[in-house]
Amino acid sequence: AVDAAADYARRLGAKTAALTGLIPALTDFGRALQPCRGLAITTGHATTASAVVLTAISVARAAARNLTNETIAFVGLGAIGSATLRLMSERPIHPDRLILCDVPAKIRELERLADELHTAFGYCGDIEIVSAHGAVPAEVYRSKFILGATNVPGVLEIDRLSPGTIVVDDSFPHCFDLDRAIGRMSSRGDVLLVDGGLVSPPGTIEWSVNLPVSLAAVLGHHLEASLLPHSASITGCILSSLLAQDDVALATAGPVSAATCHDHWRTLERMRIGAAPLGCGSWSPSAAYLDQFGGRFGQPGG
Are 153 and 171 within 8 A, CB to CB? Predict the structure, then answer.
């Protein structure tokens, strides 16, 4: 199905196609696809990692927090989670302490990643490695700044978050129950959960959609509402195909390196593309919400 979609994109005139959502994980990061002449494939992970770091910086600033003073927990350290951690370390944004959480089968991989942070990026803080057997363990809830990038839904329990916790989530689907998250933010105002993988270019984004006739017939006439993103923001994975198509940032299949993430970060800087407006699904924090949250849970000089 992905091969067919890629061929359809090529026939429409696309030079680069982005693999979104879970498609990279299901196609060996694009390497399992049939080559399509005239069409490059990108996972978009380098741009997505940049988007997550930009969002983390943006939400920390909005909440009067300083990332270097935080204990930051990473929930999920696959392709996007590890790329985000490497880019954050390369910037350098070195928090007081790191908690790295993934499934037990990845513990050795997390140990190697921790060594890399110390040796390649000069990280001097403590790194704690914990395993998730289903839901994330208690150690993660000791952090008040959590970055999610897992493909397992609902592993983070909203009721266990400490007051003042910020969550930046690029999981697909969300790593928490979206309705419960919005409910707690609306009723108690003591946590801040935001989507992590979006950026905003200058100006307004104009979207259009092209679908094969057979698929369009199934979906009906509500394409804009059901398929098209907001006019103010774009996911990093989709944007990556446009950047590659104009030859300003490399299309990448397979795992991405810290150097490639750095190149995509610089590209976004040059094009004045920043973090998207903060939001969690259909919910967006008002200026008053951010002011009161920062007043209650911000840090001096944050």
Answer: yes
